[in-house]
């Protein structure tokens, strides 16, 4: 049998579509159906896919729990120093004031932690809290409902507007909330003089209830955030691949919830600050409280990139800072709040790096470029010729085995 039969040779004029090498190249670089064993370097964005947060297993909580033990020890040490400085600081009535202060800082930290987990850090928390404090100080004599409800409505409306800005334009949450924070600062600076609180409500009478409510919310949020589906639901805005790519409609609800709830927490914190103040509410920017809140949330174990966080860290971090502020006030340390905010933020950034390095899932699956789906449209056939020619150098041989002295016709 001669080797020049059609089964064994590829005539020079045969269409290139029958070239197996060309077929492999077409499968690897042009196939967008995802039905082949694709090892090509195509990126998800080239096929129109939306990068989603990694869903490759349960995050490791051991690093969070270990860090929370350290926070608990630090809290105990600060409490010991405060007690040694002034034992009355941990006794009523001073304890009531300490608990209200902790509840107000805790509400700000809860809002910061929630917005961080959702990937839209809220920089407007401090200015919103200060604006709410002025709203209550000016209208407190009208009753708690009439002075607080308008602030809650305005805060929720502003948060919705910011959320729509983030979702429609898909811009970074920190930039959009910074715009809202600057607008709140304008509202505050329209009052050139300090405002004396008009209301007579004293929150220290419900100090244990207020701090207990904050502690319950912190623990509930931490435990819910440890559940994988809830954590991934909240963290859909976490940057993956190109951060400018839209995350789809599924990211709308967590962004709305995070921004609205965090803003409402800030309003509540501002009301507590004004109601428990010894003197008038002084116009300021409030940005130092935004820094403290975000820094405490990250120091508690919440990642600055979103999604990841601990369980008890918020409660311990807030308690530690509250004790430190009271200790600094009693010992006349005179540390500026902006300096404290910068220090807490720096520590939070370090904790974020630790969390991102050691809290990633223990097991992972193949990357997005590996498609192990079985082929559904390609069946091997012995009639398909095989070639080892380089794609850039197609076969141009003109010699045949049937030509020359060794041909079949000889």
Key structural traits:
410 residues, mainly alpha, 12 helices, 54% helix
Give a short overview.
The chain has about 400 residues and is mainly alpha-helical. The chain has helices at about 20-30, 60-85, 95-115, 125-140, 145-170, 175-190, 205-225, 230-235, 250-275, 285-300, 315-330, 335-360. The chain is built from twelve helices and no strands.
Rg computed from alpha carbons, rounded to a whole number of angstroms: 32 Å
Mean pLDDT: 77
Total of helices: 12
Quote the beta fraction: under 5%
Sequence stretches where pLDDT stays below 50 over 5 or more residues:
7-11, 27-57, 363-370
Helix fraction bin: 40-55%
Specify the biggest β-sheet. none
Q: Return the string of H and E elements.
A: HHHHHHHHHHHH
**Distance linking N and C termini:** 13 Å
Structural class: mainly alpha
Number of extended strands: 0
Q: What coarse outline follows from CA principal-axis ratios? A: globular
Folded structure, characterized:
Helices cover 54% and strands 0% of the residues. The protein has helices at 20-30, 62-85, 94-117, 125-139, 144-169, 173-189, 207-225, 228-234, 252-275, 287-299, 313-330, 337-358.
């Amino acid at each position: 049998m001669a080797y020049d039969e059609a089964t064994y040779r590829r005539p020079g004029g045969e269409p290139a579509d029958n070239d197996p090498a060309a077929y492999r190249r077409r499968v690897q670089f042009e196939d967008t159906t995802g039905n082949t064993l694709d090892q090509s370097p195509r990126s998800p964005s080239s096929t129109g896919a939306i990068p989603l947060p990694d869903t490759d297993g349960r995050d490791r909580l051991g690093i969070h729990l270990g860090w929370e033990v350290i926070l608990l020890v630090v809290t105990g040490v600060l409490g010991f120093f405060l007690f040694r400085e002034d034992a009355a600081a941990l006794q009523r009535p001073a304890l009531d004031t300490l608990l209200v202060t902790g509840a107000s800082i805790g509400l700000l930290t809860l809002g910061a932690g929630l917005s961080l987990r959702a990937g839209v850090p809220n920089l407007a928390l401090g200015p919103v809290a200060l604006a709410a404090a002025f709203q209550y100080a000016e209208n407190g004599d009208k009753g708690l409902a009439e002075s607080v409800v308008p602030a809650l409505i305005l805060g929720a409306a502003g948060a919705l507007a910011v959320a729509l800005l983030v979702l429609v334009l898909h811009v970074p949450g920190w930039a959009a909330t910074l715009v809202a924070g600057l607008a709140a600062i304008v509202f505050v600076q329209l009052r050139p003089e300090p405002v004396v609180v008009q209301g007579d409500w004293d929150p220290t009478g419900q100090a244990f209830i207020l701090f207990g409510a904050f502690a319950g919310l912190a623990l509930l949020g931490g435990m819910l955030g440890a559940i994988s589906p809830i954590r991934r639901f909240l963290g859909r805005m976490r940057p993956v691949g190109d951060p400018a790519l839209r995350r789809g409609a599924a990211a709308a609800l967590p962004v709305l919830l995070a921004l609205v709830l965090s803003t409402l927490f800030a309003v509540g914190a501002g009301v507590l600050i004004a109601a428990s103040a010894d003197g008038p509410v002084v116009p300021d920017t409030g940005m130092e409280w935004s820094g403290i809140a975000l820094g405490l949330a990250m120091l508690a174990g919440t990642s600055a990139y979103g999604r990841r966080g601990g369980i008890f860290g918020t409660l311990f971090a807030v308690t530690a800072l509250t004790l430190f502020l009271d200790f600094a006030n009693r010992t006349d340390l005179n540390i500026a709040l902006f300096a404290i905010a910068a220090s807490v933020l720096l520590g939070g950034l370090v904790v974020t790096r630790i969390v991102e390095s050691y809290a990633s899932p223990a097991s992972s699956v193949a990357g997005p470029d590996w498609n192990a789906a079985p082929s559904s449209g390609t069946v091997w056939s012995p009639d398909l010729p095989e070639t080892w020619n380089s794609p850039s150098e197609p076969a141009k041989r003109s010699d045949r085995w049937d030509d020359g002295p060794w041909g079949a016709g000889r």
